[in-house]
Design a protein that fits this description.
Distance between the termini: 40 Å
Structural class: mainly beta
Number of helices: 0
Radius of gyration: 14 Å
Helix content: under 10%
Largest sheet: 7 strands, mixed
Number of strands: 11
Shape: elongated
Strand content: over 45%
Amino acid sequence: QVHLVESGGGLVQSGGSLRLSCAASGNFISINTVGWDRQAPGKSRELVAGLTTDGSTNYADSVKGRFTISRDNAKNTVYLQMNNLNPEDTGVYYCHAGVGLRGYTTDYTAWGQGTQVTVSS
């Protein structure tokens, strides 16, 4: 089993910053492509940021220049640094990871339980 646990969400004023963390645990061989999605109230879940094993990143247009995704492979942890937050960034943030499992040729996609981010104006 693979578990992803997010932390770092909370309430922040517009213009503020938060750093989300996502720690992976369990019986896996590798953590490959990782990412963060968010779901705003009344909206569909959207990809906010992604990071591949070779260091390539992609971001939603709405967060480019403000959010940064990174990872610490030694700690099996993924981060999302969010700066200059605005009320439109409010939502539940979910981390996900493509995980290599023994005996499987394709990655298993693991998801965290989500962490709430609320930005007040």
